[in-house]
Amino acid sequence: MKVVVTGAAGKIGRWVVRRIMDAGHEVIASDRKLREESASDYFIQADLRDYGQAMQLFKNSDAVIHLANIPTDVRNTPQAIFENNMIVNFNVFEACKDWKIKKIVWASSETVMGFPFSVNELSYLPIDEEHPVHVKSSYAMAKLLTEQLAGMFHGLTGQQIIGLRFANIYEPDEYAHISTHWTDAEKDKQKMNVWAYCDVRDAAQACLLAVEKENLGSDIFHITALDTILPDRSEDLIKRFFPTIALKRPLKDFDTCMANDKARQILGYNPEYTWRNAVNADGKPKAMPKDLLALSNL
Predict the structure, then answer these.
(1) Tens digits of per-residue pLDDT, 51-60?
(2) Is the peptide bond between 132 and the residue preceding it cis, with omega within 30 degrees of 0?
(3) Domains recognised in the chain with CATH numbers
C-alpha cells in the first residue's frame, strides 16, 4: 500500500513511519513543520488547514494514517486547538472521500472519556469503549466530534475509518522518569487517567494493524499498555482512589484500568512493551540499546 502519515514529525508519527515502512509499505510522511530526519525518503511539508494541500498530499494514495493535530498543552488557547483540529480533521476526511481512499486511521484520545476522571463520572472500571463520555476541554471535544464525523463519512462512502484512543504515550527514554509518579501525591494525581499509558512502539503497532485490517467500517479502539504506570496492584489502587466504583470484570495484578480488550480481539493488538522491562524495582532505569535511544531522540 501507499500510505500517507500526517503528523509524521510528532511523537507518535516518527515511530509510525518506521513501523509502516518496515512492514513493506510505501510511506509519504507529512507535517506542518519540516522534519528532514524522517525515516521516509518522501517527506512533504503541508498545512492541512488548507483543503487544496490535503488534496495534493493524498493523491494516488491507498490509505491515510492521520496523526496531525495540535496537542492539548499550555502553548495554545482552547480556541486555537479546537479551530485547528476540527478543520484539519474535516479536510482529511473530505479529501479522502473525494479521492475515494478506502482506509483511514486517525488519532483520537483517552480525554473524551472524562480526563481528568472523577468518582462522580466513572460508571465502572476498567473503562472500555462503551463507557459514557465526559468531555472537559476543547481538545477532547474536537476528538469526540471527529469520532462522530468519522461515522458520517463512513455512512456517505463506506470507507474504513478507525479511531485509536491513545493513552499517555511514553517513548523508551522517558521510562527513566516513571518512578517520579510513585509518590502518594503523584498516585493521586495520576488517577486523572486511571494510571493508563502506552508505549509509542505499541501505538505504532496499532496503527499498522488498523491500516492493514479489512472490513471494519467506522470504529473506535482503546490503545494502552497491558499494565498501569504504577508498581501497585490495580485493584488496590481502585479500592484506595475509587472505592465506590464497581468493577466490570476482575483485574489481575497490574492490569490496565483503561481496557484494550476490543483492540486485542478485533485488531489483533498485542502490546509488547512495559516500563517493568525498562526500570528496576528501585525505580532506576535499565540500560537502553543505543539504537532505541537514538530513535527516541529523533
Answers:
(1) 999 999 999 9
(2) no
(3) 2-296 (3.40.50.720)
- 123: cell is 460508571
* Grid cell 499550555 in the structure block, residue: 74
Band (111; pLDDT cuts 50, 70, 90): very high
Handedness of CA 252, 194, 166, 9 (dihedral sign): negative
Of 291, 237, 263, nearest to 164 (Cα)?
263
CA distance 132 to 123: 8
Task: Provide the 10 A C-beta neighbour count for residue 229.
Answer: 24
In the predicted model, is pLDDT for residue 38 greater than 90? no
Burial 237-263 (b: 16+ CB within 10 A, else e): bbeebbeebeeeeebeebbbbbbbebb
Q: 95: closest CA among 143, 63, 138, 133? A: 63
Residue 116 is given by DSSP the state S
Cα–Cα distance for residue pair 108/47, rounded to 1 Å:
20
